[in-house]
Amino acid sequence: MAQGLRVGVLGATGAVGTEILGILAQRSLPIADLRLLASPRSAGQTLTFAGTPLPVQAVSAETLQGLDLILASAGASVSRQWLPIAVQAGAIAIDNSSAYRMEANVPLVVPEVNPQDLKDHQGIIANPNCTTILMTVALWPLHQVRPIRRIIAATYQSASGAGAKAMQELKDQALDILKGNPPRTAAFPYPLAFNLFPHNSPLNDQGYCQEEMKMINETRKIFHTPDLRLSATCVRVPVLRAHSEALNVEFFEPFPLAEARNLLQQAAGVAFVEDWERNYFPMPLEATGKDPVFVGRLRQDLSEPNALELWLCGDQIRKGAALNAVQIAESLIAQGLI
Ligand code: NAP
């Protein structure tokens, strides 16, 4: 293991990038040098890391030299342009974008689920889609004991999933509406404040949006179950931060409720939250800024003996992106792969 890593954060000024900086400051990844990279628009800005001001530099072949590790969250086209150059220059890249996730030679990793896949990396490691990470952390402990046959997911996705500008847009729209003005839209196609709409990613000719297909394809890759049956409906809701998901999970046999609850109460990365008397279950507001995936409202599906219903909330900028990426780096160190 390197004694101290020379780490680059590409997309350092964005929603995920700033969260990565906060998480790096809190955890114990050994960092010898930290380089903040973004677009030329941000060059010259200063960001604070662990109390120290650091300059933001424009990403270029020069600013990618001499890194051991690069954590990228600047979008798929930026990753495609710059990560091969960073890897060629000697870095291992952990990418938050969708650019490389489904490539056969790129591990797609949730450290609580498939850390062993990291050993096959060839320079680039992909961080899964945020909604997929939250779902796989919650379902893996069950799937390991009694394999899952089919998942039906409905998601309730916050504005922050679309980045820092989308969060600000939701706040501005709420103010517009409360002042009696028409809400302005730019990051989203429709007003999100006091509204919701099916996920705004491109639709395929079968009627599924890209976010739904990511949940399907990425879960199969992470679980190593190419035949897993999964369907999803993804929806944007006027929540600032933290996604929620309602999951109907069918197994090949009945899954006793007490056993499932016990497994989830002990699962890595899961906080099991249920108070049936108070009707108190996970909420995005309470998941915001927190590390675990909050799971609760676990119950037998009344319509299918082999199925359970559950509800989860998780901070998708944190566990759904930044934290998962840093945990991948920690797992690389623990496995002696960097
Ligand atoms: P964001 O808030 O819009 O931030 C985008 C970042 O990328 C900014 O730092 C921006 O720098 C940088 N960037 C944009 N164009 C660039 C270019 N040509 N060259 C270099 N840097 C460039 O977006 P985000 O929400 O953080 O998302 C970033 C990535 O993470 C996306 O691929 C997204 O799909 C993925 N992701 C996001 C979430 C989430 O919950 N938000 C979850 C999982 C994965 P400037 O400030 O200089 O423009």
From TrEMBL:
CDD domains associated with the record: ASADH_C_bac_euk_like, VcASADH2_like_N
Reaction equation(s) it catalyzes: L-aspartate 4-semialdehyde + phosphate + NADP(+) = 4-phospho-L-aspartate + NADPH + H(+)
Source organism superkingdom: Bacteria
Sorted UniProt keywords: Amino-acid biosynthesis, Diaminopimelate biosynthesis, Lysine biosynthesis, Methionine biosynthesis, NADP, Oxidoreductase, Threonine biosynthesis
UniProt: NADP(+) binding residues: T13, G14, A15, V16, R41, S42, S160, G161, Q316
Active site residues of this protein: C130, H243
Binding-site residues, phosphate: R101
GO BP, sorted A to Z: 'de novo' L-methionine biosynthetic process; diaminopimelate biosynthetic process; isoleucine biosynthetic process; lysine biosynthetic process via diaminopimelate; threonine biosynthetic process
Ranges of residues in domain Semialdehyde dehydrogenase NAD-binding: 6-121
Root EC class: oxidoreductase
Pathway(s) where this gene product acts: Amino-acid biosynthesis; L-threonine biosynthesis; L-threonine from L-aspartate: step 2/5; Amino-acid biosynthesis; L-lysine biosynthesis via DAP pathway; (S)-tetrahydrodipicolinate from L-aspartate: step 2/4; Amino-acid biosynthesis; L-methionine biosynthesis via de novo pathway; L-homoserine from L-aspartate: step 2/3
Annotated InterPro entries: Asp_semialdehyde_DH, Asp_semialdehyde_DH_beta, NAD(P)-bd_dom_sf, Semialdehyde_DH_NAD-bd, Semialdhyde_DH_dimer_dom
The EC number(s) this enzyme carries: 1.2.1.11
Stated role: Catalyzes the NADPH-dependent formation of L-aspartate-semialdehyde (L-ASA) by the reductive dephosphorylation of L-aspartyl-4-phosphate.
Subunit structure comment from the entry: Homodimer.
PANTHER family, alphabetized: ASPARTATE-SEMIALDEHYDE DEHYDROGENASE, DEHYDROGENASE, PUTATIVE-RELATED
Recorded family membership: Belongs to the aspartate-semialdehyde dehydrogenase family.
Protein name: Aspartate-semialdehyde dehydrogenase
Organism whose genome encodes this protein: Parathermosynechococcus lividus PCC 6715
Gene: asd
